[in-house]
Amino acid sequence: MANIKDVAERSGVTVTTVSRVLNNRGYISDMTRQKVNKAIEELNYQPNEIARSLLKRKSNLIGLIIPNVSHPFFAELTNYIEYYAHKNGYKILLCNAYQDSKKEKEYIDMLKRNQVDGIVMGSHALETTEYLNLSLPIVAIDRFLSEDIPFIASDNYNGGTLATNLLIEKGCRKIAHISGPLMLNTPANQRYKAFQDVANKNNIPYVVTETKLNSFDMEEYERMIYKLFKDHSDIDGIFASSDLIAACIIKVSNILEKSIPENLKIVGYDDISIASLIVPPLTTIRQPIKKIAQLAIDIIIDQVNGKEVNSENILPVELIERKTT
Asked: Pfam families annotated for this entry (predicted)?
């Protein structure tokens, strides 16, 4: 296997010059750069990235820890995070934690070993102290870890308010909210709080049901929805905490021959790409997924460069009305 000395000999320059070409540092003439790059190609030379990162004290790697890459929201978020990371000269190490605290801890240890420059944390399984003990730039998505660790969230309370007000304005007389696990105490719980506040303010009867802690299981969602309709057959409006749950509500409603939106109105949350493709197209609260991803990368890079960043980053949401209301 070729090394940097072989490249220097083949191109007729010093090892230092080859290093400067590889790291794009200092002035190098176009002719010299072309000779070095030609030698690298001919020798199929692969730079030692670990050695380079030790030299530069920078790996240009960012760890991304998410609960489940198959979930449409996290799939879209991951796509945009990778895009903005690459645009800024970084690569992503993707960690699919499945809400498993043991697995998440293993991934953190792996990211430390690979000397990542920072971590974007989108999972909710591990105890906060595990992140507080890391001497790395971190940004959390939809989770408050501490005053010292910045987080990004959509305006969950306003989103919940918009969704619940719409159901009531459309004439719903008994409404339900399917929330994420409230025990996690995340910013997303503000959707539930807003739902409750608006329903109480308008004296509208309501029901709340929670998903399980470590589940993004559509079959489990469907079982919950069947039970909800069995126990509360008079529900005529549902605010779902994600578009994926809303899609399951539409599926179960069709099986039970509940007409949408005539007999049941549904509002989701996220506005993932499939929301407009569902039949009927889903009314939902749009999170700025692309902006969340861009801001996450910007915050990591700013921390790497020693810049101050905002601890709390709340992004606006938008009501997108389609055919389920």
From this structure: LacI, Peripla_BP_3
Could you give the residue range(s) of every CATH 3.40.50.2300 domain in the chain? 61-154+289-314, 156-287
Rounded distance, CA 23 to CA 34, Å?
A: 15
CATH number among 3.30.300.20, 3.60.150.10, 3.40.50.2300, 2.60.120.10, domain 156-287: 3.40.50.2300
pLDDT tens digits for range 190-238:
999 999 999 999 999 999 999 876 667 788 899 999 999 999 999 999 9
Instruction: Enumerate the H helices of the chain as residue ranges.
Output: 4-11, 15-23, 30-43, 49-56, 72-87, 101-113, 128-132, 156-169, 189-201, 218-231, 243-255, 289-304
Beta bridge mates, 41? none
Query: Spelled out in words, what is the top-level CATH class assigned to the domain 61-154+289-314?
Result: alpha beta
Phi (first) and psi of residue 156, to 5 degrees: -60, -40
